[in-house]
Amino acid sequence: MKPRFFTFALVILAAICCAASFTFNHTFAASTLEANVGATVADFKLLDASGKQHSLSSLKGAKGTALIFVSTQCPVSNAYNERMAKLAADYKAKGITVVGINSNKAEDAATITKHAGDNGLSFVILKDAGNKIADQLGAQVTPEVFLLDASNKVVYRGRIDDARNGTNITANDTRDAMDAVIAGTPVKTAQAKAFGCSIKRVAE
Amino acid sequence: MMKHSPTLKVIVVIAVACSILATAMTRNHAQELSLTRAQKAGAIYELPLSECKAVRLDDAFRVQPLDAAQLTARLKQQGSEPNKARPVLINFWATWCVPCREEFPDLVSIDAKYRPRGLDFFTVSVDEPELITTDVPAFLREMKATAIPAYLLNAPDPAAAIDTIDATWTGALPATFLFDKSGKLVFKHTGRIKPAELTDAINKVISESQEPEVRSQEPE
User: Touching check for A176 and chain B: CB below 8 Å?
Assistant: First the structure.
């Protein structure tokens, strides 16, 4: 009787431990998310430059969302201002919302507002104070796109295109990925890197 | 034969269960990290290296071609020739990158201190190719950096060059990488360097690379 009780208790406790371990691991993974392709981005809330609060769920398009980490000072990000504005305009009616995120510690709301006005950036630009969302997604560089599908899963991460100066573009990686999302087909090039400015974080 | 009380048995069961829990957590955590690294180094980043070309600026600022495959070969060569191998420091920069320009005097100082001690340091500009005879050498002259081997990357697709150095690097500038004499990446930093942090890492690889020589000189 007693040996049976001992074995039974051991089995029950081991099962509890396995369940607890799975839960812990799942929680750990979620709390250290880096938004590599395939990861799902949890809903978040940030203020825009005018102080209005937005959430990912309130901004997302019917087909998806393109989160673009931007800077007012980075020459590479600035080289893409016109292309980012056109991207937002072209895909708004197609169901993908472009959202800018500024995580640079030295770029305040007033600077972001003025910069957006001066450069025709009509899409929402969120101020990521304390670079929390940059940390959550693992964003390191501007400009960098995280394209989410309708379920907020990252389907593309990387550059806007392969030509910083805007001439001789041979790979329109972000547009191609957005077109694939709209068409419901797999994104052929899911990640593409380019040189850009490092995001200046508060911890630095 | 000793008899154990039920309380003792319960304590033993709980202890065993906790051990199982701890082991499972550790293993799962390791798997998670491993998966993340694997994803970062994933096949989606693989691009033909032959597309990348770079051009060297030597001390006289004459242009010499060098592609990313040769860059990789140079790093591997460090490990294949142990008698000649030296730790390698690489800095990626651009004239348009403010923190790159700001950190350059520190890099020049580090080069002056550690090159005589066996550090192989070179810089790679990612500026537009046409600046190779103008802005890039002008800045290097201004920084008194002409003794440091300098290259200008001329890559139609920079992704291959980025991954040649480190698959987890997103392309953020400035970026500084330190490889030990076997070609293993031992230190990396994106954004403006912290000189103390970098020199600590260099001191470590320099001392490691000099250990065999020190031993051979010891009196028997």
Answer: no
Question: How would you write the pLDDT of chain B (220 residues) with one tens digit per residue?
Answer: 445 566 556 555 555 554 544 444 444 443 333 333 333 332 222 233 444 455 554 445 543 456 677 677 766 665 556 567 889 999 999 999 999 999 999 999 999 999 999 999 999 999 988 888 889 999 998 999 988 988 898 777 788 888 889 999 999 999 999 999 888 999 999 999 999 999 999 999 998 876 554 444 444 3
Outline where A32-184 has alpha helix (H). Answer: 56-59, 75-79, 81-92, 109-119, 132-137, 173-183
The pTM score is 0.74
Tell me if chain B has a CB within 8 Å of the CB of A167: no
Q: Which two tokens stand for residue A176?
A: 């191609």
Give start and end residues of each alpha helix (H) in B143-194: 158-165
Q: Is A136 on the interface with B (CB under 8 A)?
A: no
Please indicate, yes or no, whether residues B127 and B158 belong to a single structural domain of this protein: yes
Q: Which residues of A touch B159 (CB under 8 A)?
A: 192-194
What ipTM score was computed for the predicted complex, to two decimals? 0.79
Q: Which of B71, B75, B50 is nearest to B157 (CA)?
A: B50
Shared domain for B196 and B116, answered yes or no, is: yes
In a shared domain, residues B51 and B68: no
CA atoms of A49 and A102, how far apart (whole Å): 9
Residue among A144, A198, A202 with most chain B CBs within 10 A, to mutate:
A198
Task: Give the three-class secondary structure for B1.
Answer: coil
Token look-up 């953020």 returns B172
CB contact under 8 A, A24 and B25: yes
- Chain A residue nearest residue B166, CA to CA: A193
Closest CA to A42 of A22, A67, A62, A19: A67
User: Domain containing B69: what range?
Assistant: 64-209
To the nearest whole Å, the CA of B68 is away from the closest chain A CA by: 15
B97 and B198 co-located in one domain: yes
B44 in contact with chain A, both atoms CB, cutoff 8 A: yes
- Number of domains into which chain B is organized: 2
Residues A27 and A23: their CA atoms lie apart, in Å, by 6
Is residue A69 within 8 Å of residue A144, measured between CB atoms?
Answer: yes
In this structure, is residue B16 part of a structural domain? yes
Tell me B51's DSSP state.
G
Most distant pair of Cα atoms in chain B: their distance: 90
